[in-house]
């Protein structure tokens, strides 16, 4: 193998420099793209490729190139078959993904139902805990209750009203009897009143004991406080204040002064 001469080296240097500084033209770019498309099986954009083939086929038919038109028709058929195959693969992937999503959705629903059952059983077996947050809803005034609940509430209120009226009548009768027996003098507490008071105290004590023995911690704070205040029945007499009529002073008419009279009085004229 002979060594290159100086002329050959200079020539290669010039060729390399020209290649580095070469500016590509439109024809060169089209030729490069055509060479790349020749060895590519599937185009990047099927729509653009199909449009280009249709345009070339129509041009070949107009010019009378039958062989070229048949070749372009064959390429169009291959392109359509390839597009159908790719669409079938894509839809199969979508169907498989949809099946997996549906299966996961059904499994999540079953697991949620099982978790709800377990949570309900644990809530029934759990002890009373005052620090646990409870789900509650405010009772709205505009919300209508069920008819059964309304009937129960009305019956309960009527029963309590009857008991209260009977108790008031009993207390009034005992007070009238004591007043008649004592001749209008204040008497000590009667035996029936003391018995009723003792009975009320026993009932309150029983209820308080039941609250203490109850396992529910909220029952400890469930109690009522009754405060009876003795208010005098006789109202304070209001003395009406009559404001004395003040004598009205007689107003004498005043004579208006003009400018000349004013100057005469002041000694200006």
UniProtKB/TrEMBL annotation:
Residues 55-89 form a coiled coil. Residues 174-214 are annotated as: Disordered. It comes from the Eukaryota. GO terms for molecular function: RNA polymerase II C-terminal domain phosphoserine binding. Keywords: Coiled coil. GO terms for cellular component: Cdc73/Paf1 complex. The keyword RNA-binding does not apply. Transmembrane segments: none annotated. Residues 201-214 have a biased composition (Basic and acidic residues). Residues 179-200 have a biased composition (Low complexity). This is RTF1. It comes from Acanthosepion pharaonis.
């Amino acid at each position: 193998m002979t060594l290159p001469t100086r002329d050959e080296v200079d020539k290669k240097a010039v060729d390399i420099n020209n290649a580095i500084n070469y500016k590509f033209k439109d024809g060169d770019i089209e030729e490069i793209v055509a060479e790349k498309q020749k060895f590519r099986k599937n185009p990047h954009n099927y729509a653009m490729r199909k449009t280009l083939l249709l345009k070339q086929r129509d041009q070949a038919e107009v010019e009378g190139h039958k062989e070229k038109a048949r070749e372009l028709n064959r390429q169009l058929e291959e392109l359509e078959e390839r597009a159908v195959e790719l669409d079938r693969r894509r839809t199969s992937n979508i169907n498989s993904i949809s099946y997996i999503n549906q299966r996961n959705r059904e499994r999540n629903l079953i697991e949620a139902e099982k978790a709800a059952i377990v949570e309900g059983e644990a809530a029934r077996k759990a002890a009373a805990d005052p620090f646990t947050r409870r789900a509650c809803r405010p009772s709205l005034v505009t919300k209508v209750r069920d008819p059964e609940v309304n009937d129960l509430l009305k019956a309960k209120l009527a029963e309590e009203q009857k008991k209260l009226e009977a108790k008031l009548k009993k207390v009034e009768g005992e007070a009238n009897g004591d007043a008649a027996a004592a001749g209008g003098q204040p008497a000590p507490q009667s035996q029936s009143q003391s018995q009723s008071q003792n009975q009320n105290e026993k009932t309150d004590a029983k209820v308080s004991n039941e609250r203490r023995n109850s396992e529910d911690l909220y029952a400890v704070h469930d109690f009522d406080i009754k405060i009876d205040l003795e208010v005098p029945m006789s109202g304070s007499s209001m003395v009406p204040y009559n404001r004395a009529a003040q004598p009205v002073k007689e107003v004498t008419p005043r004579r208006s002064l003009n400018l000349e009279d004013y100057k005469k009085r002041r000694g200006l004229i």
